[in-house]
Write a structure and sequence with these properties.
The strands form two sheets. The chain has a five-stranded mixed beta sheet, covered by helices on one side. Strands 6-7 form a two-stranded antiparallel sheet. Helix 1 runs antiparallel to helix 2, helix 2 packs antiparallel against helix 3 and helix 3 crosses helix 4. With about 240 residues, it is an alpha/beta fold. It is built from nine helices and seven strands, in the order ααααβααβββαβββαα.
Length: about 240
């Protein structure tokens, strides 16, 4: 089990900018008096969005804003891996290397990151543009291998596609997120393979088929006798012998 610790080289201070301070106040106001600590994750996230990573002065500032012990905020920051505890590049590249992506070639995606960013993860590139890391499943297994840059997913990658993607970001471009092989969302490669019969959509199967008549949509939706009604014992008339 890995232990998440704060980065040894910390800035001297931290302060939310005016816009983020107002956003923090909005989050704190969502909770009743005495429950402001519930906003701790939101405030740490706002701070990370501002600075790129969570610093010790930021943790101290959030603790003061929420009237929490410093250690309580530190526990939250070190527990959730969505919080970066060390400096990151302008673009944080998160490469999924869980089994589906690995089986589909995530090793080549990692190799591209090592080549174009830094040989080791959690290292900021020389130009400050990138840092990269391996992460667990990002939920796009059918489009494996894939990675996340910022808030966007880039899927159906390989080594050359990953290199081209990184070079585009380095030039200041923002490539379109999604599948990298031209398919739409998560459809099968090469296009749809099922539910392609036009009769499924033009009412063809509501007519006679093989001598039988299929129920229309309206008829199929009519209420029918429930199982509980069919199986209920017959009611005896009043006064009948038991």
């Amino acid at each position: 089990m890995s232990v998440r610790r704060l980065y040894p080289n910390q800035p001297a201070s931290f302060a939310f900018n005016d816009a983020n301070k107002a956003l923090c106040d909005q989050w704190i106001a969502k909770y009743p008096q005495g429950r402001q600590a519930s906003a701790v994750i939101a405030l740490l996230w706002i701070g990370q969005e501002q600075e790129g990573w969570v610093t010790k002065p930021m943790i101290e500032g959030v603790a003061q804003m929420l009237s929490m012990p410093y250690i309580r905020v530190l526990e939250v920051a070190t527990f959730y891996t969505m919080f970066n505890l060390e400096p990151v590049g302008e673009h944080l590249v998160q490469v999924c290397t869980t089994t589906p992506c690995w089986l589909r070639g995530s090793d080549d995606v990692v190799a591209a990151c090592k080549k174009h960013i830094a040989p080791t993860p959690h290292t900021v590139s020389v130009d400050g543009k990138f840092s990269w890391m391996e992460v667990e499943c990002l939920g796009a297994c059918v489009n494996a291998p894939m990675l996340q840059i910022g808030k966007d997913f880039y899927e159906d990658l390989d080594g050359p596609k990953t290199e081209a993607l990184l070079e585009a970001f380095r030039r200041g471009e923002t490539p379109k997120p999604g599948a990298g092989n031209g398919r739409h969302t998560s459809e099968p490669e090469g296009g749809a393979l099922t539910l392609t019969d036009p009769q499924l959509y033009n009412g063809g199967y509501s007519r006679k088929t093989n001598g039988a008549v299929s129920a229309t949509d309206a008829e199929a939706k009519k209420p029918t006798e429930g199982a509980s009604d069919r199986e209920a014992p017959a009611q005896k008339p009043p006064g009948a012998a038991t």
